[in-house]
């Protein structure tokens, strides 16, 4: 009997050595989860045997348990590397065969699909033609590497302060080349439908005149030129013009804003630059200006609400416009909820999709299939799929990888213990052999 007990102990110790050795071998494997041996004792019994007096029959390897505790998050230089901090697995597809992994090695293949280092496609929510994430529609994630098409400017929002202490210009008529003919000015780039940049300049003239009858106060003229030309007529340098009044507290008097030329209108508390014709110069001296052939928005909305007239220096507090030129892909960003953004050289960004994660009621029931991959089994239960940070799912750290959760120090100690167990069980067999030999030698 002792031979079998010792043999079972040797087999168990050998399994323990193999499991510990495998952990040590994968101490540097990204996303690897260590395993441990779980042993059970053995008893032989019969219907008439008394279990209280039963002698054990050895040991049995009951289970090889996977330990899914968190590994260290290590930062890398690859924007598509991802580490999961918390619960969940990346979902990958190998021609429709689904597997799960914690190894966040990701890049792109020649078709722009996001794949891991095995060539498996990363799964997630894709986007539609309007750039909106299609929640619930799971498929292969990909990166669109084509240039971003330009967008013509349709709206400008601006907030400025005009100096109430400034004087009326000393030179008339208005001349954009003569700073004494206006009080202050500012410029902003706008874009036509081909992505050509144009400079829209606003010139502000203080109309204050205390000697007039009645006196004029809190009243300004804003002249607008694009590329130094009239927005509607590139052959002219006569600006479009609008009168901008303020109340006694320095706040914009929206009710009395009055366009004074046909190219500017005012409705719904917003100005509108109408019928802009994008132009270009022939480069000659003097230059001849004509349409550049690009289209533009029928009207450019111009929102100056929030502008003031206080006794402080002229300043533009905020300005935004919604147009942009052609953009080339310059980089990728992934936030902690898995949304993938493409950055372009024109300063714009565009969402490319969203990474999803899966979790299981019994993660130890997953079946390891190698390559740091697991597949669903009857013991694991069905996957619960969602976006990072949703429910109990962990968050994503982009440009980082989750290291193996193996503790080398602990594994080396376990290795010594397994070796001692192996030697001790071998000693049991050796002793049983000596006892048996003594019996055989009796005469």
From TrEMBL:
* Top-rank taxon, per record: Bacteria
- Tell me where the signal peptide lies: none
Q: Which NCBIfam families match?
A: FlgEFG_subfam (TIGR03506), PRK05682.1-1 (NF004238)
> From which organism does this entry originate?
Pseudomonas turukhanskensis
One GO cellular component term, please give it. bacterial-type flagellum hook
Instruction: Please give the Gene3D superfamilies that the UniProt record associates with this protein.
Output: Flagellar hook protein FlgE
Outline what the protein does. Answer: A flexible structure which links the flagellar filament to the drive apparatus in the basal body.
Pinpoint the Flagellar basal body rod protein N-terminal domain residues: 4-33
| Subcellular location(s) of the protein | Bacterial flagellum basal body
Q: Which family does it belong to?
A: Belongs to the flagella basal body rod proteins family.
Chloroplast as a keyword of this entry, yes or no, is: no
The gene coding this protein? flgE
Residue stretches making up the Flagellar basal-body/hook protein C-terminal domain: 398-442
- A GO biological process held by the record: bacterial-type flagellum-dependent swarming motility
Q: Where is this chain primarily localised?
A: other
**Flagellar hook protein FlgE D2 domain: from which residue to which, for each copy?**
161-324
Give UniProt keywords alphabetically: Bacterial flagellum, Cell projection, Cilium, Flagellum
The record's section on InterPro entries has: Falgellar_hook_FlgE_sf, Flag_bb_rod_N, Flagellar_FlgE/F/G, Flg_bb/hook_C_dom, FlgE/F/G-like, FlgE_D2, LlgE_F_G-like_D1
Q: Domain Flagellar hook protein FlgE/F/G-like D1 spans what residues? A: 84-132
Designated name of the protein: Flagellar hook protein FlgE
């Amino acid at each position: 009997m002792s031979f079998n007990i010792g043999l079972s102990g040797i087999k168990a110790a050998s399994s323990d050595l193999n499991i510990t050795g495998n952990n040590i071998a994968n101490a540097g494997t990204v996303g690897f989860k260590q395993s441990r041996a779980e042993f059970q004792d053995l008893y032989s019994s019969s219907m008439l045997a008394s279990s209280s007096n039963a002698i054990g029959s050895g040991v049995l390897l009951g289970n090889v348990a996977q330990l899914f505790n968190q590994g260290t998050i290590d930062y890398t230089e690859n924007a598509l590397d991802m580490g999961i901090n918390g619960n969940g697995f990346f979902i990958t597809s190998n021609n429709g065969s689904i597997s799960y992994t914690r190894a966040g090695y990701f890049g792109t293949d020649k078709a722009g699909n996001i794949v891991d280092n095995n060539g498996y496609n990363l799964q997630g929510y894709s986007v539609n033609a309007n750039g909106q994430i299609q929640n619930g529609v799971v498929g292969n994630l990909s990166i669109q590497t084509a240039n971003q098409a330009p967008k013509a400017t349709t709206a400008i929002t601006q907030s400025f302060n005009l100096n109430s202490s400034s004087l009326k210009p000393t030179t008339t008529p208005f001349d954009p080349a003569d700073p004494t003919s206006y009080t202050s000015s500012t410029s902003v780039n706008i874009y036509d439908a081909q992505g050509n940049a144009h400079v829209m300049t606003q010139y502000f003239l203080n109309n204050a005149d205390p000697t007039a009858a009645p006196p004029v106060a809190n009243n300004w003229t804003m002249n607008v030129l694009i590329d130094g030309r009239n927005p509607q007529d590139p052959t002219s340098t006569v600006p479009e013009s609008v009168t901008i009044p303020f109340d006694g507290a320095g706040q914009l008097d929206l009710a009395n804003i009055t366009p004074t030329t046909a190219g500017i209108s005012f409705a719904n508390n917003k100005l509108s630059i109408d019928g802009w014709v994008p132009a270009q110069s022939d480069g000659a001296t003097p230059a001849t200006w004509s349409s550049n052939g690009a289209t533009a928005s029928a009207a450019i909305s111009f929102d100056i609400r929030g502008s003031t007239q206080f006794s402080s220096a002229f300043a533009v507090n905020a300005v935004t416009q919604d147009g942009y030129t052609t953009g080339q892909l310059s980089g990728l960003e992934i936030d902690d909820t898995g949304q993938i953004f493409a950055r372009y050289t024109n300063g714009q960004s565009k969402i490319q999709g969203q990474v999803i994660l899966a979790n299981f009621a019994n993660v130890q029931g997953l079946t390891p299939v190698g390559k740091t991959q697991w597949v669903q089994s009857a013991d694991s239960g069905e996957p619960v799929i969602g976006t990072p940070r949703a429910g109990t799912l962990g968050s994503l750290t982009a440009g980082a990888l989750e290291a193996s959760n193996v503790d080398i120090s602990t594994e080396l100690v376990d290795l010594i213990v397994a070796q001692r167990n192996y030697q001790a069980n071998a000693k049991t067999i050796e002793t049983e052999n000596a006892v048996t030999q003594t019996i055989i030698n009796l005469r």
